[in-house]
Write a structure and sequence with these properties.
The chain has about 300 residues and is α+β, with helices and mostly antiparallel strands. The protein has 2 domains: about 150 residues, FdhE-like fold (Alpha-Beta Complex), CATH 3.90.1670; about 110 residues, FdhE-like fold (Alpha-Beta Complex). It is about 35% helix and about 15% strand. It is built from 9 helices and 9 strands. Strands 1, 2, 3, 4, 5, 6, 7, 8 and 9 form a 9-stranded mixed beta sheet that branches. β4 and β5 form a beta hairpin. α1 runs antiparallel to α2 and α4 runs antiparallel to α5. The radius of gyration is 18 Å and the shape is globular. The protein starts with a strand and ends in an 11-residue tail after the last strand.
């Protein structure tokens, strides 16, 4: 298991919010990256991402106590308690980045080693400026190739904080953003939860919190009409350890957006890892005229 269940009023209902488990969320993801790398045209890159995610796991285990916000105040105003764009950025994130860089360099290809060395040499002000870009989803421009590593450290910080809040996280009235940090989802997950089968959750790209959203509903504009699903039919250069219908793109005709949806009953899928292993699906959906509704912070198109 990679998340902790937060109970709600009735045990017969699925939980509305699921907080990440700090001890396993990144370790489980790293294992999934390794599984997906086997026989994949992008196998070397996926194995590198497995190493990056293991470095995230190790960094998270070192996270010291954090000054967490007044959750009751946030709830009273219908706001996420750890808002990505306004929660004061703890300087500890730079220490987490340093741990990730040191752990990752032995597994990195030459180009990545150069980028990691550049990051380690940057002053605190420059690193914080890169962090602000990630937190505002400005994933382009100068030094874009550095942003996935910055994002990896920020994911560790926010995931650790979300795990410590645990059951204090409550659902928001705005279903398309994370109830913990207000960030966008990377994908949605269909899973069994609280004794109920095939429950859908959006999965936060930053803090790994999951929150319930009804099936067949656009995560971006809330439309329920004009929703359709697209999937790869093979021939994309990979041999996945699960059937292609385990990962689909949910498209919306109202806002012309899409988000991947992964099905846990089809195998040990992970919303971040399986999203990146199916980039061919993104290309096809993009060519069809749809724009992605939420980022995967470990992949920067501008990098």
């Amino acid at each position: 298991m990679s998340a902790s269940v937060i109970p709600i009023h009735s045990p017969s209902e699925p939980p509305r919010v699921i907080a990440p488990l700090a001890e396993s969320v990144f370790a489980v993801r790293a294992h999934r990256f390794d599984q997906l790398a086997a026989g994949h045209a992008l196998g070397d890159w996926l194995r590198f991402l497995a190493a990056l995610t293991r470095a995230q796991h190790e960094a998270l285990q070192t996270l010291p106590p954090l000054t967490l916000p007044n959750v009751a105040h946030a709830h009273a105003h219908g706001m996420p308690p750890l808002p990505a764009q306004s929660w004061p950025l703890d300087a500890i994130w730079r220490d987490l980045l340093k741990i990730i860089c040191v752990r990752l360099i032995p597994a990195a290809p030459e180009a990545a080693r150069s980028e990691l060395a550049r990051l380690q040499a940057l002053p605190a002000e420059a690193l914080d400026a890169l962090a602000v870009r990630v937190l505002h989803t400005e994933l382009y421009g100068a030094d874009a190739a550095l942003l996935p590593y910055v994002a990896a450290a920020l994911q560790v910080l926010w995931t650790g904080a979300a795990a410590r809040l645990g059951g204090e996280i409550v659902a928001l009235d705005v279903p398309g953003v994370c109830p913990c940090c207000g960030f966008l989802p990377v994908a949605s997950v269909v899973r069994d939860s609280g004794g109920v089968s095939n429950v859908r959750y959006l999965h936060c790209a930053l803090c790994n919190t999951e929150w319930n959203l009804v099936r067949v509903k656009c995560a971006s504009c809330d439309a329920t009409a004009g929703i359709s699903y697209r999937q790869l039919e093979g021939g994309d250069g990979k041999a996945p350890p699960l059937p292609p219908e385990a990962v689909r793109a949910e498209t919306c005709e109202e806002c012309k957006s899409y988000l991947k949806i992964v099905y846990r009953e089809k195998g040990g899928v992970d919303p971040v890892a399986d999203d990146l292993a199916t980039l061919a699906l993104d290309v096809l959906v993009d060519d069809a005229g749809y724009g992605r509704a939420g980022p995967n912070l470990l992949f920067v198109p501008g990098g």
